[in-house]
Design brief:
CATH superfamily of the largest domain: P-loop containing nucleotide triphosphate hydrolases
Mean pLDDT: 81
Strand order of the largest sheet: 12-13-11-14-10-15-16-17
Largest sheet: 8 strands, mixed
Shape: elongated
Structural class: alpha/beta
CATH class of the largest domain: Alpha Beta
CATH architecture of the largest domain: 3-Layer(aba) Sandwich
Length: about 525
């Protein structure tokens, strides 16, 4: 043994030197025997043995001696803990540094919370369990109170955690889940931003104690610290997406961001769906993609893998898709590492991600959506979900989205269906958590009937898609053309959708003539761009 690294109530961690490999150091955790610890020691050991993540401890071996004392042999992680660094810096860390630590923790928690066959709940997130190397890379240590999540179980076997950081349900005999770890993340961020104060003792919001912090940051931490889990952020990726809206994540910085054009939107996830089938959500998604193309915004359009395939046919994929095109959902399921380097299906500034025309027939998990999302290096990602608002992966995406766009039409009775009312309630819950939900009408009505229809809705449509001649639309589809690229159609669409565009894009880029001489009309500018 070289030294004692740390100790707790029932365990100690020692730094030891390998007797065969001279100079090789290991961290050995000694877990003292007790009436309960035999089973929990084996659970911790088996859990660690299955984890393969560069920022989690790697288990080398484990064993017990005759008196029941357990030993975990792990790789030795050099560096201070976050608590050590916090104290060394006089309990004051730069905001950007704390947020970049939070980015990494979100990635680690996402890995644990989506672990198969059962998610892992860490349950003891705090500064002293986080280590940092010289590159400020986070390593999460001490899985002594972590546990597998069991669906349907009402309580935890043991109520454990650290006062000041643990979620309320950990001390109330209730079931813990991923949202319990997110509470701890919020409590830890509150602690770091307030010089070491605990949220449960101060009873003050972070913006009161630290008013110069960005509102998005303080509101995210406020959500994380909600007493009831259903009122918190619902996933680690939702937290990360919120923070990325104000602080770029260096691990996922795109080439567009590296050149830091302040006029480009940064990391925008836009969900587009219909309130009911056949209302035109895919048409709107393609329309937005082509408007962004005309405005020279790099964008991607993803078709939700669990819906009926439509996009491939609309894009005339048999003729237009690149040779040997790889469908993203199938490639990911097959763990095809060539997906990222494969030829993208580009059209100007737009990149298409349709599903296979035969459909996707395997199970699609929320983690799959985020894995795909992270391979797409475009500042705007449009995600067409059709009507699958209730699918778990779609709900996770909505929790993380910057904008949610709902397409509906004034068909009598459809907006009052039970499924529509349930979706309106779902949209309202997203709005309560700070998400922006926009309603877009497809098709116009006479004033009297329109007013009657609008008053029956929870919110007025922001704008209305113009009624394009159906014959023209069908001819364009059969020819494999983008009707939205015709200058006269594009101008009409941009004008009709301008209220929506002002909500989701930097205002300075909505005018394609910005910074240029104005002798040419908007029509002529769009004609040049769309003919690219």
């Amino acid at each position: 043994m070289v030294s004692l690294l740390g100790q707790g109530g029932m365990s100690q961690v020692y730094l030891v030197e390998d007797q065969k490999l001279k100079g090789k150091l290991w961290a050995v955790k000694e877990v003292l025997p007790s009436e309960q610890d035999g089973a929990s020691f084996l659970e911790e050991a088996e859990m660690l043995a299955r984890l393969h993540h560069p920022q989690l401890p790697q288990l080398v071996d484990y064993f017990t001696n005759e008196d029941g004392t357990g030993f975990l042999v792990m790789d030795y992680i050099q560096g201070p803990t976050l608590q050590d660094l916090f104290e060394e810096k006089g309990r004051e860390l730069h905001t950007t540094k704390v947020v970049h630590i939070a980015f990494q923790l979100c990635e680690i928690l996402h890995y644990l919370h989506t672990f198969q066959p059962r998610p892992i709940i860490y349950r003891d997130l705090k500064p002293s369990n986080i280590m940092l190397n010289e590159q400020s890379q986070v390593r999460l240590i001490d899985f002594g109170v972590a546990r597998h999540f069991t669906q349907g179980k009402q309580t935890d076997t043991m109520q454990m955690g650290t006062i000041g950081f643990a979620a309320p349900e950990q001390f109330m005999g209730l079931q813990t889940d991923a949202r319990s770890d997110l509470y701890s993340l919020g409590a830890m961020l509150y602690y770091l931003f307030t010089g070491g104060q605990y949220a449960y003792l101060t009873h003050k919001s972070l913006d009161q104690l630290h008013p110069e912090l960005p509102e998005t940051l303080t509101s995210t931490i406020r959500l994380l610290l909600q007493e009831h889990p259903q009122h918190r952020c619902q996933s680690a990726m939702e937290v990360k997406m919120r923070l990325r809206s104000i602080y770029p994540d260096p691990a996922h910085t795109t080439n567009y961001q590296k050149h830091s054009n302040p006029l480009l939107p940064q990391d925008k996830l836009i969900i587009v769906g219909g309130l009911f089938a056949g209302v035109g959500s895919t048409f709107l998604a393609v329309t937005l993609a082509r408007i962004f193309n005309a405005l020279q915004f790099p964008n991607a359009l993803v078709e939700q893998p669990t819906i009926e395939p439509d996009l491939y046919m609309l894009l005339y994929g048999d003729l237009r898709a690149p040779k040997n095109y790889k469908f993203a959902a199938h490639s990911m399921r097959e763990q095809d590492q060539s997906l990222i380097s494969s030829t993208p299906w580009d059209k100007g500034y737009s990149t298409w991600f349709p599903i296979h025309p035969d459909g996707f027939h395997e199970e699609w998990q929320p983690a799959d959506s985020f894995k795909l999302l992270h391979t797409i290096k475009k500042p705007i990602v449009l995600w067409d979900i059709s009507t699958q608002w209730e699918h778990p992966s779609v709900q996770e995406l909505c929790h993380s989205a910057d904008e949610i766009i709902v397409v509906l039409d004034p068909s009598p009775g459809k907006c009052n269906r039970p499924s529509s009312r349930a979706n309106f309630e779902r949209f309202h819950s997203y709005q309560q958590r700070g998400k922006k939900v926009h309603y877009v009408a497809n098709g116009n009505m006479q004033n009297h009937f329109r007013n009657e229809w609008v008053t029956s809705l929870p919110a007025s449509p922001l704008c209305t898609l113009p009624e394009l001649p159906r014959g023209e639309v069908m001819r364009a589809v059969w020819k494999g053309e983008y009707l939205q690229d015709r200058p006269e159609v594009l101008e009409q669409l941009m004008t009709s959708l301008s209220p929506l565009l002002k909500e989701i894009l930097p205002e300075s880029r909505l005018d394609v003539n910005a910074g240029k001489k104005t002798e040419n009309s908007l029509f002529s500018k769009l004609k040049k761009i769309s003919n690219r």
